[in-house]
Write a structure and sequence with these properties.
Blueprint lengths: L2 H11 L6 H6 L4 H4 L22 H16 L6 H8 L3 H7 L3 H8 L4 H10 L6 H18 L4 H10 L5 H23 L8 H21 L18 H16 L6 H8 L6
Helix pairs in contact: 1-11, 4-5, 4-7, 4-10, 8-9, 8-11, 9-11, 9-12, 9-13, 9-14, 11-12, 12-13
Length: 269
């Protein structure tokens, strides 16, 4: 391995897990850091599935997300949201004082994996192991969120000015994935590939899998849909994404068994 490659890999492993050093690596504008809840991929408050009973808060977020997609964020009022979820407007204000707060809650879709990376970035383990854990964690988080990530992304594409924080966080997540891939290539663990393009593909992979998780009940054996598959738990889908993605990049695909064993020691939930 060249000296440049060794120094790059060492730098990645030295990334701090929290504190001002991490903030300097990914600086945020002052307007973002004050009075702002994190935004990005849906964060799990509990270990419930998307199919289970949701709290009123989750119902409000889901109804608002649908209205934002149908009417646009600016055109949707608090009265519209209250009516869609079947609440008195005063009850809606108990949960959210302003429409902007519902939007922020709906957009907590990138922050969970960013916080996860902060915890493991400076820890031990190869970049291949860290990528495995990140993909497993992110896929499970997406699948178990009360909101379909693809719906959030569709809104964010059409209303980019209101959703600029979403895209900033998504960029940070994408950069982390690309850096892990680049470091694994430098350490001769992964085959040669374009880290940026590959990172894009991997994020699309787990975003698609969370969609399949949400609709799998319609495709169980014995149903009317001709496309049939056995339903899997969110954890099983997450392992499937991590194994498939990392094994496809390894110079020695058989090393995936060792990486799986290492990852099993971590409860990344």
């Amino acid at each position: 391995m060249s000296d440049d490659r060794r120094s790059h890999s060492a730098a990645l492993r030295a990334i701090p897990d929290s504190g001002p050093e991490l903030d300097r690596l990914h600086p945020m504008a002052s307007s973002e850091t004050r009075d702002r809840r994190p935004v990005g991929r849906p964060r799990l408050d509990t270990a419930t599935s998307a199919q289970s009973d949701r709290s009123p808060r989750d119902d409000i977020i889901a109804a608002a997300t649908k209205l934002f997609a149908e009417r646009g964020y600016a055109q949707t009022t608090m009265s519209d949201i209250a009516r869609a979820v079947g609440l008195q407007q005063s009850s809606l204000y108990y949960w959210f004082r302003r429409k902007e707060l519902i939007l922020q809650e709906a957009l907590v879709v990138n922050r969970a994996p960013l916080e996860f990376i902060g915890r493991v970035g400076a820890g031990s383990g190869s970049p291949a192991l860290k990528l495995y854990r990140l993909l497993r964690f992110d896929t499970r988080q997406l699948a178990l969120s009360p909101i379909d990530f693809n719906e959030i992304e569709r809104i964010a594409e059409n209303q980019q000015s209101e959703f600029i924080d979403f895209w900033r966080d998504y960029t940070r997540l994408h950069d982390w994935v690309a850096n892990l891939i680049r470091a694994a290539i430098d350490e001769e663990l992964f085959i040669d590939c374009d880290p940026v393009e590959t990172a894009t593909g991997l994020l699309c992979f787990n975003e698609g899998v969370q969609k399949r998780f949400r609709h799998q009940a319609k495709h169980t054996p014995g149903g009317e849909n001709p496309f049939v598959h056995e339903p899997l738990t969110a954890q099983r889908w997450a392992e499937l994404v991590a194994v498939t993605a990392v094994r496809s990049l390894l110079r020695r695909p058989e090393d995936i068994d060792h990486i799986r064993q290492q990852a099993a020691a971590f409860e990344d939930t």
